[in-house]
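--- STAGE predict ---
source: upstream dedup step, 1 unique chain passed
mode: sequence only
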Amino acid sequence: MCTKRQLSVTMAIQVLVSSVESVLVPAVLSVLSLALLLLLCVIRKKRRMEGMYRPSAEEKKQTGAAGSEKPGLPLPLPKEERLI
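--- STAGE serialize ---
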């Protein structure tokens, strides 16, 4: 059987562990969420600064939106050349 002293020690340890857990768990969660937020900001900034240049994709996007219509600004025909 357990003595009173052993019971009081185990109860004190349980209280200490529960108080440490109640402080430690939110602190760890807040540090992890802060690290995740920082990582997302770095990734977003890196994407913005090191994007890929794909002009063919932009052209496809523009022609796909216009469909089979003619371009919006037609070029004027050059003046007819004549011999002197």
